[in-house]
Structures are given as structure tokens and as C-alpha cells.
Design a protein that fits this description.
By secondary structure, the chain is mainly α. The protein is about 35% helix and about 5% strand. The chain has 2 domains: about 120 residues, Photosynthetic Reaction Center, subunit C, domain 2 (Orthogonal Bundle), CATH 1.10.468; about 150 residues, Photosynthetic Reaction Center, subunit C, domain 2 (Orthogonal Bundle), CATH 1.10.468. The strands form 2 sheets. A two-stranded antiparallel ribbon has the order 1-2. The protein has a two-stranded antiparallel sheet with strand order 3-4. The chain is globular.
Length: about 350
């Protein structure tokens, strides 16, 4: 190479290096040991990005509790099919909270025909009714994952009519699902839904859609032929794990022991919670979200006409605990039918 060519070559090399390193996370990073020394059980944290994620969490002020007693909402209002067990005051308080959580700009008209509040012709009202049922179902049935913290509408919506993190089937049939708002999704392209890796963008239809029960790809026995798992199944499992890691803002060792990822006895307690969380997401997708397909207008459906669905980042949004652990349900027990008894 001549001297005249060195400068353009060096400049080009610098540009290439910048492009490659541009996607890397810049320091400083910190590591926290969560297991015995020498076994690689550490969580790597970037204080700068972690602080930004936590700062994005805005918890609404609690609306004062309703006065106890009084007639049931079902006896005062027409067409109340889910929250009719609440008193009139509890019902009105809950509606006020949900308006703030889901449609603070649009107000009541986002779900209601304000000239006839009992009217079901507004599709968002039909969807919201099912979401009330889903929220209560999670709080009553899935304590194995949500514990006493539970969930409210704000857990997913965070002040937006449509949750930021949802998924549909993709236009690319070879790679069926993508995070809402992300275009692309074909195999071997970087996909945001799986941590911008080149793995399949759709581990979700099979693993979180309500169908397949097991996602293990590591053999439990050394003998050949006892554990037949395809490369495709393995990739889907790894893609889902990356999504979970990104969605919760944690490393693999948050749940797994790095010496043996498949070993339950040496895993952290969070792995058990995650096991239940996977099954909870399958449950809500298959029982509540997917069946709403016919209720949505075409503009709210995915490229293949499917309804929006949930995955781990829908609630977690980059945090190990949704809303950084804020226990909003304690202030709104109306969304936990069991607690009202």
C-alpha cells in the first residue's frame, strides 16, 4: 500500500470500527456478585442506563379511597358486567383511576359513548371489559409470579392507550413475530424483540402463544437419542431467553447458575418465578388477548390479522420488577376480587 492510500484506508477503517462499536454499550459498568466466587454468578449493570430506565417510571398519585358502603354499581348503572360487585363509589373511583392510567388525554370517551355510557359499540369498551377480567385473573390466579404486588392496568399501559411493548405475527412468514412498531423481522436480521440479535424474531408464537409447554433444549441424560431437539427449537429457546434478559434488564445468571444452566437445584429463586411467568403469559395470551381478535378494527390488528399479545417486556419494560417494584395494587384492591371478600 502506498503512502497516498494509507490515509483513506485508515479513515475507512476508523469509520467501520465506529459503526461496529456504535452498537456496544459504553462504560462505565459495574458488576455485582450474586453467587459463590469463581462461578460467574454476577449481574452486570450500567448505572447510566439503569438510572435512565428507573427515571422513566412515573407512578400516578393515589386517588383517595372510596367511602365504604352504599349500593352496588350493578344496581346503579346499566350493562356493568365485570365490576358490578363494587359499590357505586368504588366503581367511580376505579373508572377515574383507569382513565388516568390508560387514556389521560382522551378521557372517558376513549372507551365510552359519552351520550350513552352503557353502549357497547365502542370497541375499546369491549376490550377494556376483558382487560378487567384479565387483571383480576392474574391477581387471583398467578400469585406464583406476581405475588402480593400484583398488577394494575398501569403496569402495562403506563399512561398510554396501547401498551408500548406488544407483539404480532410478522409479515415475514419465516420469522413470524416482531415487537410492535418495529419493521423488518426476517431471519438473520437484527431484531429488537430478541435483543437485536440475528436469531428468529418469533420465539413467541410457539413458546408464549399458549401452545408448547416445555422449552428445555439441554439434555438431562448423556446417552444419545434420549433428547431429540432441533436446531430451530434451540434457537427459539435462546431467542426467548435473550428477550427475557433484555425485557427485565438482567443477565442470564439472574435465574441460572452459569456452571449448569439446566440445573434447578443450583439456580436462583428467580428462575422459579420466571417459570411461572412464562406460563402466566401463555395463559393470558390464549385465554384473553388472542380471542379479542374479532373485537378489534383492522387498524389495530397485525399484518396477519392477529390481535396484539403480551410478552415479558410488556409488564417489565426493562426492569427486574415491573414499575421498579411499586405496589399499586394495594391501593386499588378493586382489581383483586379475592381481596374484596
Amino acid at each position: 500500500m502506498t503512502r497516498a492510500n494509507r490515509l483513506p484506508f485508515a479513515l475507512a477503517a476508523g469509520i467501520v470500527a465506529t459503526l461496529f462499536l456504535g452498537a456496544c454499550e459504553r462504560p462505565p459498568t459495574q458488576s455485582k456478585q450474586i453467587g459463590y466466587r469463581g462461578v460467574g454468578m454476577e449481574q452486570v449493570i450500567n448505572p447510566r442506563t439503569a438510572a435512565k430506565t428507573i427515571a422513566a417510571v412515573k407512578i400516578p398519585d393515589v386517588i383517595p379511597a372510596a367511602d365504604p358502603g352504599g349500593p352496588k354499581a350493578s344496581t346503579i348503572y346499566k350493562n356493568v358486567k365485570v365490576l358490578g360487585d363494587l359499590t357505586e363509589n368504588e366503581f367511580n373511583r376505579t373508572m377515574a383511576a383507569i382513565t388516568e392510567w390508560v387514556s389521560p388525554e382522551q378521557g372517558c370517551a376513549y372507551c365510552h359513548n359519552v351520550e350513552n355510557m352503557a353502549d357497547d359499540n365502542v370497541y375499546t369498551k369491549v376490550v377494556a371489559r376483558r382487560m378487567f377480567q384479565m387483571t383480576r385473573h392474574i391477581n387471583e390466579t398467578w400469585k406464583s409470579h406476581v405475588g402480593e404486588t400484583g398488577v394494575t392496568c398501569y403496569t402495562c399501559h403506563a399512561g398510554k392507550p396501547v401498551p408500548e411493548n406488544i407483539w404480532f405475527q410478522s409479515k415475514d412468514k419465516a420469522s413470524k413475530s416482531i415487537m410492535a412498531g418495529y419493521r423488518g423481522g426476517s431471519q438473520n436480521n437484527a431484531n429488537k424483540s430478541v435483543g437485536s440479535t440475528a436469531m428468529t424474531a418469533d420465539p413467541f408464537s410457539d413458546l408464549l402463544g399458549g401452545g408448547k409447554n416445555e422449552i428445555r433444549v439441554q439434555a438431562t441424560k448423556a446417552l444419545p437419542g434420549t433428547h431429540n431437539v432441533s436446531i430451530q427449537d434451540t434457537e427459539k429457546t435462546y431467542a426467548l431467553m435473550i428477550h427475557m434478559s433484555e425485557g427485565l434488564g438482567v443477565n442470564c445468571t439472574f435465574c441460572h447458575n452459569s456452571r449448569s444452566f439446566g440445573n434447578w437445584t443450583s439456580s436462583t429463586p428467580q428462575r422459579t418465578s420466571a417459570w411461572h411467568g412464562i406460563r402466566m403469559v401463555r395463559d393470558v395470551n390464549s385465554a384473553f388477548l388472542t380471542p379479542l381478535q374479532s373485537a378489534y378494527p383492522a387498524t389495530r390488528l397485525g399484518p396477519h390479522g392477529d390481535a396484539p399479545k403480551a410478552f415479558c417486556s410488556t409488564c417489565h419494560q426493562g426492569l427486574a420488577k415491573p414499575l421498579n417494584g411499586a405496589q399499586m395494587l394495594k391501593s386499588y384492591l378493586e382489581l383483586n376480587k379475592t381481596a374484596l371478600k
